[in-house]
Structures are given as structure tokens and as C-alpha cells.
What we know:
The protein has helices spanning 48-57, 59-63, and strands spanning 6-7, 14-19, 22-27, 66-68, 71-73, 76-78. The protein is of the alpha+beta class. The longest helix has 10 residues, at 48-57. The chain starts with 5 loop residues before the first strand and ends with a strand.
Amino acid sequence: xxxxxxxxxxxxxxxxxxxxxxxxxxxxxxxxxxxxxxxxxxxxxxxxxxxxxxxxxxxxxxxxxxxxxxxxxxxxxxx
Length: 79
């Protein structure tokens, strides 16, 4: 194993979609049990809003959705 990280509680998740060039951010996770977690990107941001801004620029947000969720460290969740 190379690396693993625990994700924060799903209640802290924001789902980002971009449709017709406009970002839409909703509370809660996108992935349901019938869907697949394809991978993750780890970005170091000062705020959740900055992480959401980065997610709106990712191509997957235009076609599917991006979840923004803090990574849980031993000292507690961080954005």
C-alpha cells in the first residue's frame, strides 16, 4: 500500500456540478451504493470554498459530478 486517508463524515460533503457553464454546489454526497468511487484528488486549500472553486474547473464537473470532502487527520478534519 502506498497511501490511505480517511474521509470526513458524508455530512461535510459538497457536490459540485457545472452545467451550461454555471457551477452548482449542493450539500451531501453524490455517490450512491450503486455507483463507483473512481478515484480522488487531494488538494491543499485554506478554505472549503477554494476547494469547490478548483472542483468547478475540473472537466468531470461538467459531465458528471465532483465531491468535495475534507480528509480526516489525527488532529481532526481539514478542508
